[in-house]
Amino acid sequence: MTADVDGWRIVLTGGAGFLGSHLADRLVAGGASVICFDNFLTGARSNIAHLDAHERFHLVHQDVTTYLDVGGEIDAVLHFASPASPIDYLKLPIQTLKVGSLGTHNALGLARAKGARFMLASTSEVYGDPQVHPQPETYWGHVNPIGPRGVYDEAKRFAEALAFAYHRTHDIEIRIARIFNTYGPRMRMDDGRAVPTFIRQARAGEPLSVHGDGTQTRSLCFVDDMVDGFLRLLTSEHAGPINLGGDEEVTVGELAEVIRDICGSSSSVVFADRPQDDPQVRRPDTTLARELLGWQPQVDWRDGLERAVRWYRQQPG
Ligand code: NAD
Known about the structure:
Low-confidence stretches: none
Strand content: 15-25%
Helix content: 25-40%
Largest sheet: 7 strands, parallel
Mean pLDDT: 94
Radius of gyration: 19 Å
Bound molecules: nicotinamide-adenine-dinucleotide
Shape: globular
CATH topology of one domain: Rossmann fold
Distance between the termini: 41 Å
């Protein structure tokens, strides 16, 4: 599969975020023109500063919950804007619901007006605290709609439903990626997710704070692999939803120890309360991605963590 986007003109919402900025890099490198919409709610100017001068990259500072328009033809609209880490969406519950609903509506409207393909960055959180393990795309999930995390989970579930409604009603082409935990360079040190938090704590010589007893599991995917999955899905003929994620499961306790070792730190591990509705297990069934997209992660999670730690070491301060 070639995943060729050469010559495409693409609107990317959330392009100044962690995943969006890596995706922008790959699209531009692949010959596409990228119009990035971001209001820097949780993203950073520095993530895309290196693209500023590129003739095929254009930044629009805009909240995508307001009317979205661009001149000229567009081949694809990729909707990645949304707070994504629990710390962010618990602090920004209404913005999270708005960007998942109104933002998705605007992005779909733009795709419809342009006859463009629409792609949604959905999430493994649509499965909630799953009662089926690993999670196949056919599993409908186990979500508490009124719990604090419901603002994110339900926003994404609504976004998927809206994308399918546009597909069925207006015949627009859609692609839905259900993204599992991804990590790598440009994750914010303070975004509260396990990988950057453990790296920051280990490097500062502080105790590593593991939620619960650390036996809950996560499956990690290095960002380069994830972006490869996005491109394959975008250029495929499959609407999805398709799970994209690492299929090796690791306990949070083990993750803390491995990161401590990579950082060469002697920090202790302390156990803190589990957040409400925190999933106990998380692992994608990636059969569809393998069979339909020929995709599977290439980077071993320990190697990927070393690369992430190396990047953090290079950051000023
Ligand atoms: P991020 O917070 O780094 O990036 C999100 C970007 O969206 C930021 O640049 C932010 O400023 C922007 N944004 C938010 N609301 C906006 C609005 N109303 N208007 C314009 N821009 C807005 O998060 P990320 O980790 O890069 O996640 C990107 C997407 O992938 C999100 O949709 C997220 O739900 C999804 N996702 C990420 C992961 C992961 O492991 N990182 C897992 C599952 C799903």
